[in-house]
Amino acid sequence: WAAAENGFKRTIALSPSNTEAHTFYAWFLSPMGRNDEAVAEARRAQQADPLSPFASFSLGGVLVFARQWDPAIEQLRRAIELDPTFWFSHCFLGRAYEQKRRLPEAIAEFQRALEVEKDNSEIWSGLGNAYAVSGKKVEAQKVLDHLKDLSAHSWVAPYNVAVIYAGLGEKDQAFALLEQAYKDR
């Protein structure tokens, strides 16, 4: 991790306006729990190239990870204005709406993401979980069935299925699935 961080810092020192370097450094910092630094780096990337859909999305995504829901929603809306076909922006906007308990809007964003990227299990997972936590159990089960069908010809991360089970309140099923996936590694 230290070597990776040094690489990001070196790249930025050599090219301070390198949007990608700031963006990927932000994505590195976020899972390290360094959310304030991650947001600052994502802002630098977005300021370096304000018309970049990826930089704009990345700032919104990092704000989601930092649990700053309202600024994330605002930023992801701007990202979608730049590129309405960038599925990541719709998916992360759905996640932010879901955390704000704005479930109909979350469902709509996951559906928009699926219009762009129809067989993406991450998007299906978000939609299934949003259905589940909004009490739409039949729809959530249909998403689980779809992911099972999808897994016959594409890899579906066990986490993406477990999230839906957790949303349905079937936590034992969610943990069993993740435990099995861990054992299979």
Largest sheet: none
The CA-CA distance between the termini, in Å, is 22 Å
Radius of gyration: 18 Å
Give the helix/strand class: mainly alpha
Q: Low-confidence stretches at least 5 residues in length (pLDDT < 50)?
A: none
Q: Strand portion, in percent?
A: under 5%
Shape label: globular
User: Count the helices. How many?
Assistant: 11
How many β-strands, per DSSP?
0
Proportion of helical residues: over 70%
SSE order in H/E notation?
Answer: HHHHHHHHHHH
Q: What is the mean pLDDT?
A: 95
Task: Write up this protein.
- The chain is mainly α and 185 residues long.
- 77% of the residues lie in helices and 0% in strands.
- The chain is built from eleven helices and no strands.
- Helix 4 packs parallel to helix 6 (87-99).
- It is globular, with a radius of gyration of 18 Å.
- The relative contact order is 0.07.
- The model has no long low-confidence stretch (mean pLDDT 95).
Q: Topology of this protein?
A:
Elements: H1 2-14, H2 19-29, H3 35-48, H4 53-65, H5 69-82, H6 87-99, H7 103-116, H8 121-133, H9 137-150, H10 158-167, H11 171-184
Features:
185 residues, 77% helix, globular, mainly alpha
Brief characterization of the structure:
With 185 residues, the protein is mainly α. Helices cover 77% and strands 0% of the residues.
